[in-house]
């Protein structure tokens, strides 16, 4: 020290300066620390307050969202036929109850908030039984009642949204007021902090670091709050879009929808209602409905007010499937059918009535035309068939006279050969006419009498076949007919009708097979409960497009014939009807190279007694 006198002169002031600097720095740090503590306490308390207000905003927003979701699910359940919509509705109601439980556990911060919360809870208490009643009616009446129940739901939804929106607006206003106040307090505290840190750069830097961190946290919080507000706006937009969709459903509905208030003044009159009535919506009272909208009874008289479905619903009486007429301004008359129901508030007080109606004019006209056409067709068919029966019956007498006369002439020995040949042609033609008339009479009996009449008794199908084939061999000399019998052919059948079946089937085979080709008839009685009869012939097969219609009346096959039959195309139809009258079935198979086979299966009816006879 002795060697550095300047140092001895420098160090004491420096020590004082250092001490003073340290003192000032300590004071500045103390002031800064105090200011920082005050600012931190202020910001912390304000952050807690804002956080609490924000929780209130979030809670009310969750309540608005839960209510919106509940109303959406309720609308879906009322409008659409799907079980999953009922499950979605129950889940939405559960979520809504959970949010309400959180709201009731939260202590209101202001008298206004307490009043709004109590008002919402009262509204919700009134709405709950109404919503339960609407859901029960929808489950009982089905989706057809959806538009009507949706209209009843509208007042509940409007009142709930109104109370919730008022509560949400109050919470948001309180939040923004607190937020603005927090900003003002923060600015004041920052000024005090700046004064405290003017003494030292270190304290200022420390304060800057602290403020930067606080600012970053505040920016993050503001970003989160901005996102929350954006979600709130999105929820409001979704509600508005849902309301717009509901308006479109009502306006574009295929049924007319008319809603009145409690005084009977029409408040809703959609596009379909305007089309049905030919007039636009007019706010007229109930006594003016008939004259304004052209309401008439079904006999064309003015519809009394007491009989109007909408007025009856306004008086508290539900009306379903009512029908009335509407005379439009252009003079046309339409027939309407609809349902009307009264509307009530959650507290049960009447709020109006709703009517849904559809235009049934075209449907009723089509039904009347169809009934008239069916009646004309039935009358025509019955007349035709009766005419055929009468003509066939009346022709029998002159034909019998012709046939008898021809037979007398055939046994006469006085006729020369030339005249005898002509008499044979007359007899043959008369026999064909007799067969044609018999077929016509059988056809008429089957169509007008409910089926072919049969008189079953114990008979042997093989014996019936032998007799029928002997007659056919006599009338068709040169034919090759064979009979094969397997088992026994006993059964309870109409012998005359089965002889007719065999004659028609074998005659059909002779008609469509080459001359001289074999015709095989088989009776298979091996089965205990039925006997199978088959007739097989060779020749060209039946075309595939003809097989499905082969047994229709007045139809003939298109195969090349060996000779003209002179028939009416009723033979196979009559055969089928006789088989059906015996409880059997008839089928046909035809293949190239294999020929054609008709197969009839006839039940024996009493196999036990028949087995005893055989044994």
UniProtKB/TrEMBL annotation:
Q: What is this enzyme's EC? A: 2.7.13.3
Kindly list any coiled-coil regions of this protein: none
PAC domain location: 320-372
- Please report the stretch or stretches of sequence annotated as the PAS domain: 242-284
Q: SUPFAM superfamilies attached here?
A: ATPase domain of HSP90 chaperone/DNA topoisomerase II/histidine kinase, Homodimeric domain of signal transducing histidine kinase, PYP-like sensor domain (PAS domain)
Give the main location.
membrane
Give residue ranges for domain Histidine kinase: 390-606
Which Gene3D superfamilies does the annotation name? 1.10.287.130, Histidine kinase-like ATPase, C-terminal domain, PAS domain
InterPro entries referenced in this protein's UniProt entry, alphabetically: BphY/WalK/GraS-like, HATPase_C_sf, HATPase_dom, His_kinase_dom, HisK_dim/P_dom, HisK_dim/P_sf, PAS, PAS-assoc_C
Catalysed conversion reaction: ATP + protein L-histidine = ADP + protein N-phospho-L-histidine
Which CDD domains does the record cross-reference, listed alphabetically?
Answer: HATPase, HisKA, PAS
Q: Name one GO molecular function term.
A: ATP binding
Entry's SMART domains?
Answer: HATPase_c, HisKA
- The membrane spanning regions, by residue number, are 189-212
Cited PANTHER family: SENSOR HISTIDINE KINASE GLRK, TWO-COMPONENT HISTIDINE KINASE
Kindly provide the name given to this protein in its UniProt entry: histidine kinase
Question: What is the organism of origin for this protein?
Answer: Archangium lansingense
């Amino acid at each position: 020290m002795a060697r550095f006198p300047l140092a001895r002169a420098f160090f004491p002031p420096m020590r004082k300066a250092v001490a003073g600097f340290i003192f000032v720095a300590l004071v500045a740090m103390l002031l800064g620390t105090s200011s920082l503590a005050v600012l931190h306490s202020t910001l912390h308390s304000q952050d807690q307050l804002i956080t609490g207000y924000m929780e209130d905003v979030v809670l009310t927003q969750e309540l608005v969202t839960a209510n919106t979701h509940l109303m959406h699910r309720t609308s879906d359940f009322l409008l659409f036929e799907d079980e999953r919509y009922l499950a979605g509705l129950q889940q939405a109601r559960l979520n809504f109850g959970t949010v309400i439980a959180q709201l009731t556990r939260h202590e209101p911060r202001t008298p206004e908030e307490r009043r709004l919360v109590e008002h919402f809870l009262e509204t919700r208490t009134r709405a709950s039984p109404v919503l339960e009643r609407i859901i029960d009616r929808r489950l009982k009446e089905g989706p057809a009642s959806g538009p009507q129940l949706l209209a009843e739901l509208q007042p509940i939804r409007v009142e709930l949204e109104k109370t919730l929106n008022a509560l949400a607006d109050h919470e948001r206003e309180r939040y923004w007021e607190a937020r603005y106040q927090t900003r003002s307090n923060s600015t004041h505290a920052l000024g005090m902090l700046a004064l405290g840190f003017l003494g030292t750069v270190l304290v200022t830097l420390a304060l800057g670091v602290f403020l930067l961190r606080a600012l970053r946290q505040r920016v993050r919080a503001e970003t989160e709050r901005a996102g929350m507000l954006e979600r709130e706006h999105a929820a409001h937009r979704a509600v508005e879009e849902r309301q717009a969709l509901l308006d479109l459903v009502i306006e574009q509905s295929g049924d007319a929808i008319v809603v009145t208030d409690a005084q009977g003044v029409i408040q809703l009159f959609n596009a379909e209602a305007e089309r049905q009535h030919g007039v636009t919506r007019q706010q007229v009272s109930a006594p003016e409905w008939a004259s304004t909208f052209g309401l008439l009874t079904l006999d064309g008289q003015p519809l009394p007010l007491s009989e109007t479905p909408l007025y009856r619903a306004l008086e508290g009486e539900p009306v379903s499937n009512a029908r009335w007429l509407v005379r439009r301004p252009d003079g046309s008359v339409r027939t309407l059918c609809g349902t009307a129901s009264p509307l009530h508030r959650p507290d049960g007080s009447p709020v109006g009535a709703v009517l849904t109606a559809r235009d049934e004019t075209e449907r009723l006209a089509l039904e009347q035309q169809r009934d008239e056409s069916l009646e004309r067709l039935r009358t025509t068919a019955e007349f035709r068939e009766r005419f055929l029966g009468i003509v066939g019956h009346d022709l029998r007498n002159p034909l019998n006279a012709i046939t008898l006369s021809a037979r007398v002439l055939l046994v006469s020995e006085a006729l020369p050969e030339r005249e005898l040949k002509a008499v044979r042609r007359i007899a043959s033609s008369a026999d064909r006419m007799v067969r044609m008339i018999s077929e016509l009479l059988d056809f008429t009996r089957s169509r007008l009498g409910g089926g072919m009449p049969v008189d079953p008794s114990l008979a042997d199908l093989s014996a019936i076949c032998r007799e029928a084939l002997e007659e056919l061999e006599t009338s068709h000399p040169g034919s090759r007919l064979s009979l094969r019998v397997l088992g026994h052919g006993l059964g309870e059948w109409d012998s005359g009708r089965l002889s007719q079946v065999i004659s028609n089937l074998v005659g059909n085979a002779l008609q469509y097979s080459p001359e001289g080709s074999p015709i095989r008839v088989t009776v298979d009685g091996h089965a205990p409960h039925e006997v199978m009869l088959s007739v097989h012939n060779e020749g060209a097969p039946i075309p595939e497009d003809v097989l499905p219609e082969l047994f229709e009346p007045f139809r003939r096959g298109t195969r090349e014939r060996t000779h003209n039959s002179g028939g009416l195309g009723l033979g196979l139809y009559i055969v089928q009807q006789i088989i059906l009258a015996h409880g059997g079935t008839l089928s046909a198979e035809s293949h190239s190279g294999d020929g054609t086979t008709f197969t009839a299966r006839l039940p024996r009816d009493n196999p036990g007694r028949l087995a005893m006879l055989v044994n």
